[in-house]
Amino acid sequence: MREDDAPASTRRLPQVLLVPFDSTDDIPQIVCCFGQPVAGNPTQFMMEKAFADAGLDWRYLSLEVPPESLADAVRGLRAMGFRGGNLTIPHKVAVIPLLDRLTHAADMMGAVNCLIREGAELIGENTDGKGFVESLRTLVDPTGKKIVLLGAGGAARAVAIETALAGAAEFTIVNRSLERGETLAKLVHDKTGVPTSFVAWQGDYMAPTDVDVLINCTSIGLNDSSGRVPVDFNTVPPSCVVADVVFNPAETQFLKAAKARGCPTLDGLGMLVNQGAIAFKTWTGIEPNREIMRDAVEEFLEA
Ligand code: NDP
User: Fold this and answer.
1) How far is the CA of 155 from the centre of ligand 1 (A)?
2) Tens-level pLDDT at each residue, the chain (303 residues)
3) How far is the CA of 21 from the centre of ligand 1 (A)?
4) Of 12, 47, 90, 299, which alpha carbon lies 20 to 30 A from 260's?
């Protein structure tokens, strides 16, 4: 098989037709992703398609950075004048002391997925939750809604804080480990003032009859189309919007069960594209074509 015929996710380097480097006055602008592992991450493919579509002479590099090299990597990013970047596992919290300041939302969440360079300053932002809320708004306005959030890790933190800031009326955090769940419930309440309770997850979760939005923020179902999130869907009202942050596969077992119940659903691809589009706009000042970005992610993941 020729490399061009291989699925994008298995190619050694993303094969994107970039804007030709033909300027003698300027050099391409660079943004990057630091993570470990970064192989299989669709962001470079998505961003470079969007740069090419916007006619921008920008490059996006996926860089494998082990935890012990993160400080050197951030120094390098500053020294080489990168315009910004993304952080993925395991750097979202560890990067904070290496930055000049955080945005209000990133400070509340205690996690950063996006770096913005403004002059000599490197600012930490978090676009995950904002991307989720933009996706949610295509089906329902979170204002005044009762939200049940399954999970209490990094994604749950970002989704809960931004959904609370967007006007949610009440949260229930459901998590397997007590400590993480209780910590997130306290964080959401203390930082946003939204009433938030914690439920320890045992067996199939029974949803309250008045839930408006049910969100899977666990990693159950990631790369596993049969992975079952333990929820009794007979208790979920068909009017409830059901969302998953897992984006691979796009249609998880959780979303299939919700559809079978008659609930409107949102997949994790929308959040992924939106969080990337918000970062793109912040770095370049240009609104990217989100359809091109979604097509790129679907091509990469063969969704
Ligand atoms: P974390 O490791 O920080 O958190 C994982 C969460 O899943 C924890 O609450 C953990 O519970 C829970 N969990 C895992 N396995 C089980 C299980 N078998 N039963 C019950 N609970 C379980 O991961 P992240 O929050 O960083 O990521 C979560 C998901 O979000 C991933 O799939 C990631 O790909 C996705 N994501 C999607 C984004 C998008 O743009 N669509 C952006 C960011 C993340 P416990 O505390 O008990 O261990």
Assistant:
1) 7
2) 444 455 555 444 444 555 554 555 578 999 999 999 998 899 999 999 999 999 999 999 999 999 999 999 999 999 999 999 999 999 999 999 999 999 999 999 999 999 999 999 999 999 999 999 999 999 999 999 999 999 999 999 999 999 999 999 999 999 999 999 999 999 999 999 999 999 999 999 999 999 999 999 999 999 899 999 999 999 999 999 999 999 999 999 999 999 999 999 999 999 999 999 999 999 999 999 999 999 999 999 986
3) 40
4) 299
Asked whether 176 lines ligand 1 (CB < 6 A), one says yes
Please say if 130 is a catalytic residue.
Answer: no
Residue extent(s) of CATH 3.40.50.10860 domains in the chain: 3-127+271-302
Residue 222 near ligand 1, beta carbon < 6 Å: yes
Alpha helix positions (H), 31-137:
43-53, 70-79, 104-109, 128-137
CATH H-level, domain 3-127+271-302: superfamily: Leucine Dehydrogenase, chain A, domain 1 (3.40.50.10860)
In this prediction the pTM is: 0.91
Cβ neighbours, 10 Å, residue 194: 18
Atom of ligand 1 at shortest range from CA of 152: 9
Closest C-alpha among 30, 29, 147, 84 to residue 279? 84
